[in-house]
Write a structure and sequence with these properties.
Helix content is 33%, strand content 20%. It is of the alpha/beta class. The strands form five sheets. The chain has a five-stranded parallel sheet with strand order 4-3-2-5-6.
Length: 403
């Protein structure tokens, strides 16, 4: 029997295939490079059968004249080519694609490594470089080696203050940063069925931090209901008995709050082991943990209190921001002393809107803590939203309580 990747790509693991791309997207960073490569290819028009999108999210709004000029050129290309275009403030590309766009069984290619996030919907979603994206603009196709798959078997339910981010750090810690290189992670088992779409997005998102080509959930009743609410009727993907090259098993009830310490995502420790570490900044957001459920969870913990350290909160999209405004979540966050950023990537990539100074320490809900990523000389610890909220109130790494 076939893995989900083999079924979507219609070939056995290890085989090289050329496949039509259903959806392809780039952001203001990679899109600029893709446009340059596309012009060098002598292209004059986009392929017809693929849905293309450009989203401005990485340096949004622009941080200087050079960035603004490059964005103007890409904006003009996108709108003139009849691409789907999302300007500054609309949100992170992966989040926008998750808001009722990507469907099960599709081949989705993004010019960003965290495009794996969309595997939460039972799509084969992966990232490519700018030149590969330019070729997709030209032909509507790409080549892939069908990946072998690792089974991530989930049982039970989260208990206490643990959440999906803690599980994500747990499997990256166990696999290592290159333990799943060019392999697909398939999240299966009774525990997977109980996870919400938001939780699945977190787990798929962190798949690439173990080197994975893709991270996939099977489309089930949760997926069908989520997409139905957004105007789509889809069929479930039923798992088949298949042989994984490796199997990892996790009981969600055993997961505890975790933190990845600098400068590797796979160097993971329980929060209790780091309790009391002083912080200069807390950052909540990104394509990992900037959704409404994340902001609402953060707000429940900080409501009625004041943060003890500068705390930056960035919604993943305009839709997330709007919902947070309507429900009062945003008011609770601002009244707690937090700073709100424009929907987008914020300081995650280290260009502006929260860059660290030398020797400053940040606790972040993002997905990477590489050296100098958020500012030269800064240190990044990665955690769940609940841990970030508890730590913001204390000004030091603090274990979250059940709320």
């Amino acid at each position: 029997m076939s893995t989900l990747s083999e079924r979507i790509l219609n070939a056995p693991a290890g085989e090289y295939v050329d496949r039509k791309v259903d959806r392809a997207y780039a952001h203001d960073g990679t899109g600029v490079l893709a446009l340059e490569a596309w012009k060098c290819m002598g292209a004059s028009r986009l392929a017809n059968a693929t849905e293309f999108s450009i989203m401005f999210d990485h340096i949004a709004p622009a941080n200087n004249t050079t960035t603004a000029t490059l964005q103007r050129e890409l904006r003009e290309f996108a709108t003139g080519s009849f691409m789907n275009f999302s300007d500054i403030g609309c949100g992170i590309c992966h989040q926008l694609m998750s808001e009722g766009v990507v469907l099960p069984g599709e081949i989705v290619i993004g010019a960003d490594s965290h495009s794996v996030t969309l595997g939460a919907f039972g799509a084969f979603a992966t990232g490519v470089g700018a030149t590969d994206m330019a070729a997709i603009w030209l032909t509507g196709e790409t080549w892939l080696r069908v990946p072998e798959s690792i089974g991530i078997h989930l049982e039970g339910r989260f208990t206490g203050a643990s959440e999906a981010k803690d599980l994500a750090l747990a499997f990256v810690g166990e696999l290592g940063m290159d333990g799943a290189t060019y392999q697909a992670l398939e999240f299966v088992g009774e525990g997977a069925k109980d996870l919400s779409i938001d939780e699945r997005l977190v787990l798929a998102n962190l798949s690439v931090e173990a080197g994975a080509k893709a991270g996939l959930f099977y489309a089930d009743d949760v997926t069908i209901r989520y997409l139905r609410e957004r105007g789509h009727t889809v069929k479930p993907q039923l798992p088949e008995q298949c042989a994984y090259i490796k199997d990892l098993e996790f009981d969600l009830s055993d997961i505890v709050p975790l933190v990845a310490v600098p400068h590797r995502v796979d160097t993971v420790k329980p929060v209790d082991d780091l309790a009391g570490l002083p912080l200069n900044q807390v950052f909540v957001g990104t394509c990992t943990n900037g959704r409404y459920s994340d902001l609402a969870r953060f707000a429940r913990i900080v409501k009625g209190n004041k943060v003890a350290v500068r705390t930056i909160v960035v919604p993943a999209s305009a839709a997330v921001l709007t919902q947070a405004i309507r429900t009062g979540v945003l008011a609770d966050i601002v009244e707690a002393g937090c700073t709100l950023g424009t929907p987008g990537c914020g300081p995650c990539l280290g260009y502006h809107m929260g860059v660290l100074g030398e020797e400053e320490v940040c606790l972040s809900t993002a997905n990477r803590n590489f050296k100098n990523r958020m500012g030269v000389g800064g240190e990044i610890y990665l955690s769940s939203v609940a841990t970030a909220a508890a730590s913001a109130l204390e000004g030091e790494i603090t274990a979250p309580e059940v709320v």
